[in-house]
Predict the structure.
Amino acid sequence: MTTLDVVRGTAARVADAVKIYGVGGTEVRALDHVTVEFPAGRFTAIMGPSGSGKSTLMHCAAGLDTLTAGSAWIGETELGPLNDRRLTLLRRERIGFVFQAFNLVPTLTVRENITLPLDLAGVAPDQAWLEALISIIGLGDRLRHRPSELSGGQQQRVAVARALAGRPQVVFADEPTGNLDSRTGGEVLGLLRRAVDEMGQAVVMVTHDPTAAGHADEVLFLADGRLVDRMERPSAGLVLDRMKAFERGRS
Amino acid sequence: MTSAPVTARLSLRSLRAHRRRLAGTLLSILLGVSFLTGTMVLGDTLRANFDTLFADANAGTDVVVRSADVLDSAGTVGGVRAPVAAALADRLRTIPGVAAAEPSVQGAGQLVGSDGKPIGGQGPPTLAGNWLTDSRLNPYRLAEGRAPGAPGEVVVNRGAARTGGLHLGSTTVLRTPDPVPVTVVGIATFGASADGMGPSTFTAMTFDDAERHLTPRGAGQAGSIQVRAAGGVSQRELVARISPQLPSGVQAITGAEATRESTQLLSGRFLSMFTTLLLVFAGIALLVATFTIHNTFAIVVAQRTRENALLRALGAGRGQVLGATLAEALAVGLLASLGGLLGGIGVATGLKALFSALGFALPTGGMVISAAAVLMPLLVGTLVAVGSALLPAVRAGRTAPLAALRDTGVDRAAEGRSGTVRTVLGGLLVAGGVPVAVLGATDGPSVVLTAGGALAVLAGTVVLGPVAAAFAVRTLGAPLPRLRGVSGVLARRNAARNPRRTAATASALMIGVAVVTLFTVFGASIKATLDDTVSKSFAGDLAVTTSSFGAGGSGISPKVADTLAALPEVRQTVGLGRGVARIDGHGRTLDVTDPARLSGIVDLGRVDGSLDALGTDGLAVSRSEAQQRGWRLGQSVTVGFTDGASGPFTIRALYEGGGLAGDYLITRQAWAPHRGQDADTMVAVGLREGVPLSAGKAAVAKALAPFSNPQVQDRAEYAKSAASGVDMMLSVVYALLALAVLIALLGIANTLTLAVHERTRELGLLRAVGQTRAQLRGMVRWESVLVAAFGTVGGLGLGAFLGWALVRASDSAGTGSFAIPPGQLAVVLAAGLLAGAVAGLRPAGRAARLDVLRAIAAE
């Protein structure tokens, strides 16, 4: 798969997605008929208040969780029919992940963490690409260090590098700046932005931080499991206003 | 509940909340306590069973008259007593108060079963004697048929009859050792209902027959005279009346005393050896359990750091947090020990069945459970639990309140100062222990010195464990990354991640494997020594032996050697018999033989003096024995025989010891006047030049048919059969050690389960970024294998060293061999690794079933 292929078309999508937790009286409808596409080469942010279903949407789209109804796709592959093993292989070959915290395996060095998905697949990393990534995250001198020797911001930068190392079809980032201060958070968001602009990478990010969402190409707003709005070329101010409008509308 | 102290409430809550975590601990204590209880109950039960049995059987015997002269020698249980005149019974009957007096002839006699195979003889004695006609004096009771009345008629004990398939009217052969054709006319029980006196067999014939076949011809000798008192005369009173009438050197004791002696002989020697052996293994199992339990509590306390810190922050004192952990251990220990008590009764039943199946016939009777057998295991189990939890509990008490706020990495060992102390202490123990053990092994040799050194080395190794663990696991796991990629890398690093924990886990297995290795090496060395002895000193082609070369078998007829010598295929034969005598005051075993016929078949090494001219007043002595007792060639020593006679003998030859022949050789001519029942224990045969081994063997076997077929073996077979007892002993030891190894494996599984639990998020992350379930399972299993490998390899090394030291230390003559059996040790290694993989199965399965999303989100 080359970068050019990824740039065209859809990196991931969900169609008429429904996710229900629990049964009977305790039933919670986390996703309520959501249809959304994440285009290749674009930075999409998913926003919404707690319990809006934004994390569930990401987890289902990324094959970490299964839908109750509807379908989820990575590229042209539908996730529903895949068994655990196929899903795992798909995750490590075509998806990159950045989580809010505990992103790195403590016993592996920085370099080993970056190449972890490739190593699990038994694939030799593209050395030139790897060197490029390492120089972008700026941790060339820390490659033999363990995660515990890095700051929180540095750890998240390593996580971004790992997500990008295999040149996946799409990178899912779940509150990647949630545990960082604004300066280090900005660095991580800048990295994701560069991945989209310079590498043509598709990135989907769940966040509740309007500033973070301001780095995206488009913001999707979720509330009560439904897609309620979207905003192209957002800025932190505009996103904040829109969020406040929702809060008022709900109360 | 509200009134209960807060610490007790807390610990009970946490017990309920972490049932799973402590399940492994519970099980290890339970198993260890079960074994301990089982051993104690079995010991009490057997002792009581034997006591009842003898008391019942001898109830009718009030006084036993016997020779006061006992000749004690290594290898004769209870010593050899001189005979008394059978005619003494007639005189005793005239004493007022004596209701009955009967001479009792006791000797060895092995029955041949209906299938032509000898009955018994694998250790327990095969006895023969006269049937006491006074039914109350006779410890045996007729169950079927009648008493022997004519020559050739015998009564056999029920156990022997059953084993040999003999019935009333069966005709068979009794080896005394000359074959005597006999007809079974009665079947007897020992006492009211036992199949026999323990596992021994007994054949009873008429007094005339017994005298003819079991004593030197016409000697009129009996082993003892059993006396029954008339009504109203007490045992003591009768002894007092009889004693003055006895010739010198003959004594009278009460029946109660005689019974006590025979039970003590059994309880004191056989049973206490038996129970001590079992207790040692119970101790090993409990020691191994201690490591497992300590480790579990250490991990649980580490995982609970935040909880404990919160308690401390809210105002709980050190003592309260410490108390809560100890109370938890106490509860687990008590609960497990109670379960172990119940299990122990099952174990006792199982052990009894196991030893019966292995051929140790044990008496029947109900289980006897003494207070000690209940209290001791309960106390030991609880102490082991509380003691193991002590250090972790102290650590829990020391938790700083601030730790509640910190994100403490529970999976990281705090090294540093304690690491240095550990290295120095462990290093000192090993550095001190090794030379002491080596010194004890080579110079002296001294078992005590070596055992002390060995203990220091063992303790040092355990102390050094955490220091060595990381390095060892990394070394052992070196091939893993190539074999299993990044999952292999992770397995290796996880195993080395917390060296203290890995070491504690592996130590349990290490101790188990070390003991297994020690016994394996010891057994192999004994076998090598026996093999060496045979190849060094057995120069013949064939060996004729009975099924047992120690106590038990009836021996070989002295006529065999001459019969075989007459065969055209045979060049030369020599028989070796065994006797005991008192030589310059010390009981010793003699080899009774024709020294002149030894040459060329039994190699005695360099001989000073001449074997041909020992005559009826000469001895040959091994050089090492002579040296030890300060004798020279030509010197005169006093030899006292079992019949009470004694006289001066001249040492006419010195020879190399340590071979087939023991330390003393005496001629048949010198021995004959004093002999009891004459038997050879082995006949060595040399074939004529050019006679093929198979043809010679067939001819010898054919000639042996009238002697009811003793075994004929070539050199290799003979060496192998000499070592077969070692194999049987080893299999018993392995079976007993299996428990310790099982507990060690439970420990590995438990530690891994706890590790998986605390690495939940990490495992979730790995699964999210693409580790398959299979890879994850492999990662956990390989970690388990690595920990097991560390324990196994350490145990092999330690066991081999200690085995070497003990083999050398216990070999005072310096003639033994040391052997490391590579095949068997490879099996131990493979078993250790495989067991590691098995121990990892459950934790690996649990880890693989983790839900990815929940794992990532886990606290």
Summary: Chain A touches chain B through 28 residues (CB under 8 Å).
